[in-house]
C-alpha cells in the first residue's frame, strides 16, 4: 500500500512526486540547484595516479616572455 500523504520539499515547500525525491525530501529542481552550488564551492580534486608526474622543471626561456624573444613593445 502506498502513502497518499503529500511530501513537501524541504527547500521550497512544493510537493515532490518521484520516489527518490520523496526519500530525499528535496524536489528534483531544488536538488539540481543544490548540487550545482556544492560543485561550485568544492576544491579541485587531484586525479588518482597523477600526482608526482609533472616531469622535469622548465629550464629554458618562457615561451610567452617577449623579452627573451627579442620583441619590443
Summarize the structure.
The chain is mainly alpha-helical and 73 residues long.
Structural class: mainly alpha
Strand content is 5-15%
- Mean pLDDT rating: 76
- Structure annotation, total helices: 3
In percent, how helical is the residue content?
25-40%
Largest sheet: 2 strands, antiparallel
Low-confidence stretches: none
Shape annotation: elongated
Cα-atom radius of gyration: 26 Å
Strand segment tally: 2
Could you describe the 3D structure shown?
This protein has three helices and two strands; from the N terminus they run E-E-H-H-H. By secondary structure, the chain is mostly helical. A two-stranded antiparallel ribbon has the order 1-2. The longest helix is centred in the middle third of the chain and has 14 residues, at 28-41. The mean pLDDT is 76.
Describe how the helices and strands are arranged.
Elements lengths: L6 E2 L6 E2 L2 H6 L3 H14 L24 H4 L4
Antiparallel strand pairs: 1-2
Provide key terms for this protein:
single chain, 73 residues, mainly alpha, 5% strand, 33% helix, elongated, two-stranded antiparallel sheet
